[in-house]
Design brief:
Elements lengths: L1 H21 L2 E7 L6 H6 L22 E2 L1 H4 L6 E10 L2 E9 L14 E4 L15 E3 L3 E3 L4 E10 L7 E7 L20 E4 L6 E2 L8 E2 L1 E8 L1 H4 L8 E3 L5 E3 L10 H25 L8 H34 L1
Antiparallel strand pairs: 1-2, 1-13, 3-4, 3-13, 4-5, 6-8, 7-8, 8-9, 9-10, 9-11, 10-12, 14-15
Helix pairs in contact: 1-5, 1-6
The structure holds 2-acetamido-2-deoxy-beta-D-glucopyranose (5 copies).
């Protein structure tokens, strides 16, 4: 019987690894009308709403921001990819995927690191749309009382001809372009995005620019994640789950300890995982390596279980024969 317990423990432990390395971990969410500056929250040292599951929901619009401590530990965690998603009416309406390898808290959000996007003219463009802003700090102009963060913009031609993809009109703004931006000064921070397949001539689609939320999720380096140790520094992610700082060299994993401490985390992860799978149907999920690993893992586990069952049966048979 002990062998069965061991196998189940092993199963759980492996499951934890699979989730840790494959799933997008939500680490930040900015909400239109949320409390406080998006720029200051992201770049500052604070965390927010880590124990508030509603603030972390992308499906139900809750006007609260969320920030995990993972953002503050950015350079330490072996982040491989970063996904920025725009949500409206509980649905993903646009995304940007970035190369996160070797990046820090702020410099990952750049054109040079962009790998994929829902906007055809931004990623792999043949039209070569010009870009005048692509940064988290964006355009902050205290003298004009305008603060635009997470700003991806193409051209400025005097407000009425501005073209862009993303613009968070942040708190402290008291001015905005009259026809398409100033109307949102009553619900700052306001997340404005192009509702088209390309950058938008903002004024032409002025009534459709506002989004509910912008989220930032990350994926960790898989080879690094397989050597996560319980003894290394925990980083709080939400009320009941922790991410662990990857260690430098492969080490023996203490299965008993890991299972003991991650039992709670596992149940939380299972729930959010199925939710994620339902909400994410974009191209960036089409990775065969993850599936292959899953099948391989299942095959190995099955053969281990088979072996133990075989030995248990053998022992049982011997006992009965005596
Ligand atoms: C907004 O955040 C500030 C601190 O940043 C806090 O003092 C205040 O109570 C918050 N307001 C609401 C409505 O949550
Ligand atoms: C693991 O992460 C470190 C930085 O955290 C990186 O330098 C290294 O290349 C990663 N390992 C692999 C195999 O990619
Ligand atoms: C991130 O790296 C850039 C250089 O690419 C540097 O200018 C910036 O200060 C760094 N930011 C942080 C928060 O370390
Ligand atoms: C991007 O451009 C490269 C080189 O022009 C091409 O090989 C690749 O297929 C393009 N990818 C997409 C998604 O269009
Ligand atoms: C916004 O205003 C608050 C209070 O008025 C101030 O503390 C904060 O530094 C301002 N933020 C920026 C980015 O200027």
């Amino acid at each position: 019987m002990l062998s069965f317990i061991f196998v189940f423990n092993l199963l759980h432990a492996l499951n934890v690894f699979a989730i840790d390395s494959d799933e997008w971990k939500l680490i930040f969410k900015a909400a239109t009308g949320g409390n406080g500056s998006v720029y200051e929250l992201f770049t500052g040292p604070d965390i927010l709403n880590v124990d508030n599951i509603h603030a972390q929901s992308l499906l139900q619009p809750v006007k609260e921001h969320f920030k995990s401590d993972i953002v503050n530990q950015w350079s330490e965690l072996g982040i491989s990819e970063v996904l920025v998603r725009i949500h409206n009416n509980g649905e993903e309406v646009a995304y940007f995927m970035f190369d996160g390898v070797g990046s820090n808290k702020t410099n990952w959000f750049s054109l040079a690191r962009l790998k994929q996007s829902s906007y055809a003219d931004l990623y792999n463009s043949s039209t070569n749309a010009p870009i005048n802003f692509f940064s988290i700090i964006g355009h902050q102009k205290p003298s004009r009382r305008v603060y635009r963060s997470f700003y991806i913009n193409s051209i400025w031609k005097g407000c009425s001809k501005d073209i862009g993809w993303l613009n968070i009109l942040d708190v402290n703004s008291t001015w905005g372009c009259r026809t398409w931006e100033a109307v949102h000064l009553t619900e700052l921070p306001a997340i404005l995005y192009s509702p088209l397949q390309t950058g938008a001539h903002y004024e032409e689609v002025a009534s459709a620019l506002l989004a509910e939320s912008m989220s930032v999720s990350v994926r960790f380096d898989r080879s690094n994640m397989t050597c996560v140790r319980m003894c290394s520094t925990p980083v709080q992610q939400d009320a009941s789950s922790y991410c662990y700082k990857p260690c430098d060299s492969p080490s023996v994993i203490d299965v008993e300890q890991k299972v003991e401490q991650l039992k709670e985390k596992l149940t939380v992860d299972r729930k959010s995982t199925s939710m994620y799978k339902r909400s994410l149907r974009s191209v960036y999920e089409n990775r065969t390596s993850a599936k292959t690993m899953g099948i391989m893992g299942a095959a190995i586990i099955a053969s281990v279980i088979g072996l133990f069952v075989f030995f248990d049966c053998l022992r049982w048979k011997q006992n009965n024969n005596q």
